[in-house]
Automatic annotation (TrEMBL):
Compositionally biased region (Polar residues): 479-491
Record's protein name: Ubiquitin carboxyl-terminal hydrolase 39
EC annotation from Swiss-Prot or TrEMBL: 3.4.19.12
Organism of derivation: Opisthorchis felineus
SMART domains: ZnF_UBP
Length: 491
């Protein structure tokens, strides 16, 4: 069966230029002339029909003439799926199953991703982002990112192109099989991250998520600036920022050392270093701190699995709860005040912690409802009045199973298919339907909550002044450097 999921390079010369796919055996070869590998293959093996992977044209070799036949359109669509505006707008309401060429049925967008070796941490992030509707709708239309710069000095365009191709294949209603391989996209990830993220060894899912969002946001900013140069193009938000980025204030005050005398503390009162400070910053996700697990066994000499409610974890961001953050030099008290909620809110449960010697995993179970969480309760009255909708529903839930040591744990994801309102569990190639009641019983790592526009915020007041806007993302966050925003490091 034909498979266009792998990197498009010649199987003999490993060149990316002028590559053709043999429609008989599925192998890739370079060129079409008499001295090329494709020509040699057609003569030696008797395979005569080839597809140009760039122009999507069919040729007969060695006679070298173009084949124009409507029956080959399915192959062209498999190579590069396309979607009309009406098809994109109906994805969240479509409840019909489609049949793949191999006879299996599946729902659009609910297909497995191949685990090449140890890239399950990437697969769950890709499945999650593929169900963020604004992001999905943008990348399903290839026209939105077709005109990106392809200079050799800027490799981020390759990441955007490959990400868009993968999203289109995940939502392809005419797939030949019920799974997709992310190999081509992961090759771009290895290149653009300077080998920080590999698909041959296990990695951190939240680090990959943060890097990918910043990299896509930066690349789309560059594309917009090249098309519409000027300060307005620079200040405009991309689809990534518009869908996933929120705003918060971080209030900090440095704690004086306990071994100081009262006289020394009095001299430091007016020191700017010890005065309270407030910073307004942006975030792509909120880090929720899990309570430490109990040290002792229960009466049956078994480990106690603690439980905590999601509302307890979210109290960290209500603007009044203070928490001490220690460094090797001093301690700082911080409290976090949400100012703007994004349409899609990502929560990260800080379950895996690195201590001096090794990685430790917190087994605490987080209890949460699947629908209708009012995040407006975390906002002050002024900010809440500015939000028309503050009620959110869960759309994706990433789970980490097993020990935290590298190469030992695995990732899986729960996804909501909105057309049928059914929940599915995806672990690499395996796709199974699950009951929504089973989702909170797992060791949640990352969640995505979507705003529910059917429930109006009762405190909404259109006359309230808008909260602070967005700013540009630091370019170093997408070039193999520290990808986390300031809030992500602080929280």
């Amino acid at each position: 069966m034909l498979d266009f999921d792998f990197e498009k390079l010649c199987s003999v010369s490993l060149s990316h230029l002028n590559v053709y796919a043999c429609l008989v055996c599925g192998k890739y070869f370079q060129g079409r002339g008499t001295s090329t590998h494709a020509y040699t293959h057609s003569v030696s093996e008797g395979h005569h029909v080839f597809l140009n992977l760039e122009t999507h044209r069919f040729y007969c070799l060695p006679d070298d003439y173009e084949i124009i036949d409507g029956s080959l359109e399915d192959i062209t669509y498999l190579l590069s799926p396309t979607f009309t505006s009406s098809e994109i707008s109906s994805l969240d309401t479509n409840n019909r199953m489609v049949r793949a060429y191999n006879g299996l049925t599946y729902y659009q967008g609910v297909v497995g991703l191949n685990n090449i070796k140890a890239n399950d941490y990437c697969n769950v992030i890709l499945q999650m982002l593929a169900h963020v509707s604004p992001l999905r709708d943008y990348f399903l239309n290839a026209v939105n990112y077709r005109g990106m710069s392809t200079t050799s000095s800027d490799q981020m365009h390759l990441l955007v192109q490959r990400f868009g191709e993968l999203i289109r294949k995940l939502w392809n209603p005419r797939n030949f099989k019920t799974h997709v391989s992310p190999h081509e996209f992961l090759q771009a990830v290895v290149l653009c991250s300077r080998k920080r993220f590999q698909f041959t060894e296990q990695g951190d899912a939240v680090e990959f998520l943060s890097w990918l969002l910043n990299a896509l946001d930066l690349a789309l900013h560059r594309k917009r600036s090249s098309i519409k140069p000027g300060p307005k193009a620079t200040s405009e938000r991309t689809v990534v920022s518009h869908a996933l980025r929120g705003t918060m204030r971080v209030h900090s005050r440095k704690i004086m050392p306990v071994n100081m005398s009262e006289e020394e503390k009095a001299t430091l009162v007016d020191n700017p270093e010890y005065m309270p400070s407030t910073v307004e910053t942006k975030f792509f996700y909120l880090t929720c701190d899990l309570p430490p697990p109990p040290l002792y066994l229960d009466e049956y000499k078994e480990s106690i699995i603690p439980q905590v409610s999601l509302s307890t974890l979210l109290a960290k961001f209500n603007g009044t709860t203070e928490k001490e953050y220690k460094t090797h030099r001093d301690s700082v008290m911080r409290r976090f005040e949400l100012r703007r909620l994004p349409p899609y809110l990502i929560l990260y449960m800080k379950r895996i912690v690195k201590n001096i010697f090794t990685l430790e995993k917190n087994p605490t179970i987080v209890n949460f409802p699947i629908k209708s969480i009012d995040f407006g309760e975390l906002l002050d009255p002024e900010c809440r009045a500015h939000h028309k909708y503050t009620t959110y529903d869960l759309v994706a839930n990433i789970v980490h199973d097993g020990p935290p040591t590298p190469g030992s744990g695995t990732h899986r994801i729960h996804l909501l298919h909105r057309g049928t309102n059914k929940w599915f569990e995806l672990q690499d190639l395996h796709v199974t339907e699950v009951l929504p009641q089973m989702i909170p019983l797992s060791e949640t790592l990352i969640q995505v909550w979507a705003v529910n526009k059917s429930i109006l915020n009762p405190a909404y007041s259109p006359s309230t002044p808008a909260v602070a806007g967005e700013t540009q993302v630091d370019e170093t966050k997408a070039n193999g450097g520290q990808e986390s925003t300031e809030v992500q490091e602080q929280t």
